[in-house]
Amino acid sequence: MKPIQVGLLGIGTVGSGVFNVLARNQQEIRRRAGRGIEIATVADLNVERARAVVGSDVKVVADARAVIADPNIDIVVELIGGYGIAKQLVLEAIAAGKHVVTANKALLAVHGTEIFAAAQAKGVIVAFEAAVAGGIPIIKALREGLTANRIQWIAGIINGTTNFILSEMRSKGLDFDVVLQEAQRLGYAEADPTFDIEGVDAAHKATIMSAIAFGIPVQFDKAYVEGITKLSAQDIRYAEQLGYRIKLLGITKRTDKGVELRVHPSLVPAKRLIANVEGAMNAVVVQADAVGTTLYYGKGAGSEPTASAVIADLVDITRLHTADPEHRVPHLAFQHDALSDLKVLPMGEVVTSYYLRLRVADQAGVLAKVTGLLAESGISIDAVLQREADEVGGEGSTQTDLIILTHDCQEALMDAAIAKMQALPTVLAPITRIRKEELN
Description:
By secondary structure, this protein is of the alpha/beta class.
């Protein structure tokens, strides 16, 4: 049987990984797919670099649209990234009747509803395993492996850069800015790391997982997004003393009121497996009614781990190439006409527990006043830890840190309580608030 013909848009880190893994494991992949998979054409603005990667046997062009227009190309792999030209090219490929494989989480999180509708109307597949958690097959697990389950919640470390930074802050006691510079020097962080450290990249991925888990449209604009830039080594140390570790988590949860979709630093009990995921590794925990808790762990980025996911999509499409479009696995796991209008909750309606750190004057009555304000707001305290003044500010210090762990409460109540506590003259600095997730 004639091999499936693939057009590759972009031959950077992931694109070169796709080409190399496909070439190295060609025989194994053919045995699994039932026919060969060949990269016939590569489009890249840097034609010379592309030729250096793929050699003389593969056609190289500068114009991506030439790949889409080629009637011999069956599958277009989009590895350009971003929202702009990538969106146009993906929609043009779909309109031309091509299947699409993409690793572009930003594109799908923002424009996925439009793209999947176009693909459904045209009877083609848009596959995106590589868009979330690199080489970890979490999309396939959610769409297929757990299809018998009612998924209750997902919590994931889905950005390797931030996990590396938090791991280094914890192990070396360094502050964020110092570790960020080291992460950039080692290549774990981009020159402009904003998407990573502000939580945007993780929110793109959480948005996609939420849509698949609960059968709702992708709604990135409704996600709550908070990064790690305000975390201090002090809070990481205090969390450790209380039996927790701080991780940037992407969380989506089904509740009676709607769906939670949020990314923020979280205290996680140190005994949880996910709390012990270190360095640039990723991990996703899924809680479902029939199977219980499952954990998916591995490399969330990199040339060949991501290429592994791209090629898995190529194999899936090759197997299903001639299948009736109505009997393929739906893009978002649920049939396209059965998506739910379950609302994504605003952060004020989310219920969780909290870690609070208050820098206060070291004098009598401060603790009673703070705990009294929490009680007035209907917030129950789980634990209180007060540091010795000389431990915080040195010998003779007149300031101390007050650390409070709360039980579950609504975010809006906590916002109001923090505003009241911040107004106290004995509270000497902005209050640090970190959400706490037990992940039971």
